[in-house]
Structure formats: C-alpha cells, structure tokens
Amino acid sequence: MRLLSTKIIYLLSAFISILFAGILIHEGVKTREKLTDEYFKHKKFMFQIKNITHGPKKHATEKEVRSLLERHKINIGSIYSGETGIEVKAENVYWGIIPYLVRDLERNYTIVQFSAVDNTGKGMFDVRIVVR
Question: Model-level pTM?
C-alpha cells in the first residue's frame, strides 16, 4: 500500500510550484518598484544639479583659504599663491572631512584642481587643492 497516490503527489508538486511562482512574481514586482524609485531619485538629483544657479564667487586670498581650512581642522603642509590660484597641500586629512571641505570651497571659490590620495588605506588622505 502506498502512502500517497500519484495524483496527490502531482497535486502537491503543482501547488508548491504555483506557490513558488507567485512568491517569485511578487518579489520581482517589489524589486522593479524599488529600481524605478531609485531611477527617478537619480533623475531628480541630476536635474537639480543641471539647473543649479551659482552666485558670483569671490577671489580667493591665502588668508581666507587658510581660515577655511583651519575651521575644518586640517593641518596645512604648504599654502602659496601661484599663477593658477591659491595652492594648498595638506597631509593626513580624514576622509570624512573632505566632502564638507569641497562643499565650502565650492560655495566661496572656484576649484581649479583637487586631488586626494590615500597611500595608507586607513582613510587619511594627502590633499592638493588649487582654488581661484
């Protein structure tokens, strides 16, 4: 005597397959909605960046740039005026400070060149900035 007949096994496997397919479809729809939301957030962000208006920026001086860097508690290696603008070299700048530094520099001055290199892998960067 068999415990389960062939018909019951077929019905159970069909039920489990349909249940599994329903779960997969539901998860696929949720994933598509999340991707669509992220896509539109990205498009809105790009639209805002494209349409941003910049006010007139002032000319950078060594004193102003030095005070801005000191507010961010950055150890200045060297700072001097060159043909391209004010050039600043700083060492051991913590990675978490860099976005705020760039934001404040962009608000006040024009960033001509910016480079940040982490040779240690510990999040401490050597930074070189040229602002005008």
Answer: 0.58
